[in-house]
Amino acid sequence: MLASDAVTLERATPDMSPLLENLLELYIHDLSEIFAVELGPDGRFGYDKLPLYWTDPVGRHIFLIKYGSRVAGFAMATRGSPASQSPTDLDVAEFFVLRAFRHVGVGRQAAFMLWDTIRGQWVVRVAETNQTGVSFWSDVIRSYTSGVFGESTTAGALHAWRVFTFASRATGAMC
After folding, report:
1. Where are the alpha helices (DSSP H) in the chain?
2. Of 117, 128, 113, the residue nearest 159 (C-alpha)
3. How confident is the prediction along the chain (175 residues), in pLDDT tens digits per residue?
């Protein structure tokens, strides 16, 4: 990576909805290898929860991942996780890095920035059948926490989930 190609997180705004809708299509297409998702009659997968990120800025956070000036993906976090009983836990709801920016550290840096930006107890869930995702998150979380994290497997309706839990190390302002 070049210094001019720094990874940054940019808080998304409602006017970025068309861009995020397009990125979500690519993300869901990638996930269609793991999850049974259907195209709508318009040829799009759709993501019904996106409008909630504009109406609930306390409970939902969405960021563009940038690599230099280029959009490289997005990160979505929610307060409350399906894998936790605590309504204050933070959940990595969706996380996506475009293929052109994978395997060069963009995802790792973006995840670190996300956890450092929003302080708290974090939950990361990944389907056990997503071996690439399990490997990525295990490595990134181990590095971020210096090995201090919880890891378990939970049964789901269709998939078993690997669940990681850990505390943010952030010292900056909390969102």
Report:
1. 17-31, 52-55, 106-117, 131-145
2. 128
3. 455 579 999 999 999 999 999 999 999 999 998 888 999 999 999 999 999 999 998 999 999 999 999 999 999 999 999 888 899 999 999 999 999 999 999 999 999 999 999 999 999 999 999 999 999 999 999 999 999 999 999 887 677 999 999 999 855 444 5
φ/ψ bin of 80: left (φ > 0), alpha (ψ from -120 to 50), beta (otherwise)? left
Q: Based on the number of CB atoms within 10 Å of its own CB, is 87 exposed (0-12), middle (13-18) or buried (19 or more)?
A: exposed
Are 9 and 35 within 8 A, CB to CB? no
- For residues 73 and 67, give the distance between their C-alpha atoms in angstroms, rounded to a whole number: 9
**Residues in contact with 22: Cβ distance below 8 Å, sequence separation at least 6, in sequence order:** none
Alpha-carbon distance 102 to 119, whole Å? 25
Residues in the chain: 175
d(CA 64, CA 163): 24
HSE-up of residue 29 (Cα within 13 Å, Cβ side):
11
Give the separation between CA 162 and CA 65, rounded to whole angstroms. 24
